[in-house]
Every structure is written in structure tokens, then in C-alpha cells.
Amino acid sequence: MTIFFYVILILILLVIILANIAPKNYDVSRSVIIKKPLPEVFTFLKLLKNQDEWSPWAEKDPAMRKTFTGTDGEVGFVSAWVGNKEVGEGEQELTGIIENEVVKSQLRFLKPFKSTSDAYLKVFEDENGTKVVWGFSGKNKFPLSIMMLFMNMDKSVGKDFEYGLKKLKEILEA
């Protein structure tokens, strides 16, 4: 009985230690230069429905069911989806638009697990066209925060951002 008690105590202490050292926040972003004028790029980016053309997740489930609420390109517009295991279920709401600067949205994932992230698409003038920065950030809540000790969010999501930005560049430069 004493050994069992010590094992449980050690497990509890291990969880407490891991929870304290686990990353509490994440911020992942990637960028690309698009050889088009900034207003043209921004006009395309502020429409959430356009993401279906370049988002890597749209490709991962072509049969994904989508619904839309509100006016695309305006704060409050919601794009919701129900897809396969790779894309899960959730919704994205436009939460802020600063013309020719940034499109902000909130991602609310429902499946495979609940989480919320703040996403952004920022544009900057560049000598070669328009620099687009695509990213998202959020908080790692317990117990998922412990999982982040063993998973690199930047590597796992970053490659999807790179792929999507490459497609975005191809579409806008065509």
C-alpha cells in the first residue's frame, strides 16, 4: 500500500511540474511576397470564402460541409465547417478589419478537441509587391498545455501555412 501511495504522489508531482513548465502560449506565422499591389491582395484576403481556394485544409477534405453567416468581408461574418478527421469541426469569425493592413479572425475548433485561436492576415508594402503574413496565436490550456511539451506547433502548423501561402501566391500572380 505504501508503494502505491508513493507512485500516485510521484505522478501527481510530475503532472504539476509538467504543467508549470509547459508553454502557456503559441504564435505561429509564415510570410510570402506576392507580386501584386497591396490593395488588390488585401481585397482578396478579407473575403473568408476565398480561403477555400488556397487553404491547405480545404484540400484535405474536399467534401467538407460549410455554412456561412453574415456578409463576407465584414466583421461578424462566420464561416463554419464540418469535415473529416484531418480538418475536424469549427468556425472562423471575422473580428477586425483594418483596410489594407490586417484581417483578424477568431478560430473556434470544436472537434477533435475544443480550442480557440486568434488568426491574422497582415499585409505590408514591399519593393517586390506585397508581403503577406499569415499567422495565429492562442493560449495552451491545461491539460493540452502538457501535450505541447512533446509537440512543436510551429513545425506542425507552419508547413500548412507555407503550403497555403504558396498556393495564394500562385493564384494571385496568375
What do these coordinates show?
This protein has a single domain, classed as Alpha-D-Glucose-1,6-Bisphosphate, Chain A, domain 4 (2-Layer Sandwich). It has helices spanning 2-21, 38-45, 51-54, 56-60, 144-147, 153-173; strands spanning 25-34, 65-69, 78-82, 89-98, 102-111, 115-126, 129-139. The chain is α+β, with helices and mostly antiparallel strands. The protein is 36% helix and 36% strand. The protein has six helices and seven strands. The longest helix is centred in the last third of the chain and has 21 residues, at 153-173. Strand 4 and strand 5 form a beta hairpin. A seven-stranded antiparallel sheet has the order 1-7-6-5-4-3-2.
**Spans of 5+ residues with little confidence (pLDDT < 50)?**
none
Helix and strand pattern: HEHHHEEEEEEHH
Give the total of domains: 1
Shape: elongated
Helix fraction by DSSP (H/I, runs of at least 4): 25-40%
How confident is the prediction overall: mean pLDDT? Answer: 85
What is the name of the CATH superfamily? START domain
In CATH, the topology is named Alpha-D-Glucose-1,6-Bisphosphate, Chain A, domain 4
Give the class from helix and strand content and strand pairing.
Answer: alpha+beta
Number of helical stretches of at least 4 residues: 6
Instruction: Please give the largest β-sheet.
Output: 7 strands, antiparallel
Number of strands: 7
Q: If you compute it from the alpha carbons, what radius of gyration comes out, rounded to the nearest whole angstrom? A: 19 Å
Strand line-up in the sheet with most strands: 1-7-6-5-4-3-2
